[in-house]
TrEMBL record:
Cofactors demanded by this protein: heme
Signal peptide: 1-22
Descriptive protein name: Cytochrome P450
Annotated organism of origin: Castanea mollissima (Chinese chestnut)
UniProt entry tagged with the keyword Iron: yes
Single annotated GO MF: heme binding
Location(s), subcellular: Membrane
Keyword terms: Heme, Iron, Membrane, Metal-binding, Monooxygenase, Oxidoreductase, Signal
One GO location term (cellular component): membrane
Family: Belongs to the cytochrome P450 family.
Amino acid sequence: MSPLTLAIFLLLPIWIFMHILSRPKDPKKEPKLPPGPRSLPIIGNLHMLGSLPHRALHSLAKKYGPIMSLRLGHVPTIVVSSPQAAELFLKTHDTIFASRPKLQVSEYLSYGTKGMAFTEYGSYWRNIRKLCTLQLLTVSKIDSFAPMRKAEVGSLVQSLKKAAAAHEVVDLSGKVCELNEETTCRMIFGRSSDGRFDLKTLIEEALSLVGAFNLADYVPYLGALDLQGLTRSMKKCSKALDIVLENIVEEHEKILSSGQQDRETDFIDTLLSLMKQPMNPHDKQEYIIDRTNIKAIILDMISGAYDTSAAAIEWTFSELLRVLGTPAAGSSLHAGYRWACFAFLQSGTDFLHSKWTTTLSPIPPGPFSVAFPPFVVQECRSSELRSYISATFPVP
């Protein structure tokens, strides 16, 4: 018998006892949830997701409607799968459903939710987002790196030209990852990737742990057992990442203390200049920028560049190659290429923006968004949501 099966059998009596105690005495006070499949003890509806959860949820939505309820372990979950329903959650009631779930991985790989990616919606998230927007991601700051980005993209294009002339097979995913790695390192660290440590491998391991199914997130009282070994892996990866980031921050501190001026100011330099200052100048006692905040922000930005940005660029190339490979495009390939260049020169970034949004609409970087924490559903008592559920798919 596997450890997981043994744990489930041992905890089943405890679950039954806790379930009986937690049930409300008055059934009328139970919250009314959208329609959904029946759940099993302990695991809920986890067994219905399979290896391709986005397809499984799509099939369930055909039966239960665009807004349905599931129970993933002990976590009540609302699944939204239509544009109209998504607008209600992500636009009309955005402030209610704008938070993040509490995941075990965030405690280890986000410095205890000190960054932006896993932080719950609130004053801290608003302040740190404002800090990044006004200090790191300003138009002038991004434009200052334009020559560097142009040089890196030009180098990629030249390598693709050489490979095409030699009729070589090109690993486009690898090329895109290398491009992202170089541009990200130069913007954040002020230099190309360092051979002293393999940051790329550590980031890939961290992203793998973030995307892994963690039983402790859905059945919390199994977390202490670490049945999957994920907690041990998270601690090991977190320690390795912290050593690398600490070395990089210390190196920048030495450069800044030496008064060296003949270098471009990178993201770490900017953050170090703000250290021990309040995130919000109007509230000097609320959140003070410390070393942990800096490392958490850096880690979030590196992870975002390595993961979603690379995936989006890869899908964009795939869509362009797919369209150019169709019979209709093949007969006028040269004319289409000339038209694309002309449109780009005439409209500037409008052409690239339209192609980018056209790609991201059918193929987003991720198959679905991050799940919302369960407590926000109880706070939203909108009659608009209830009427939409009833009109679209009556509750059986």
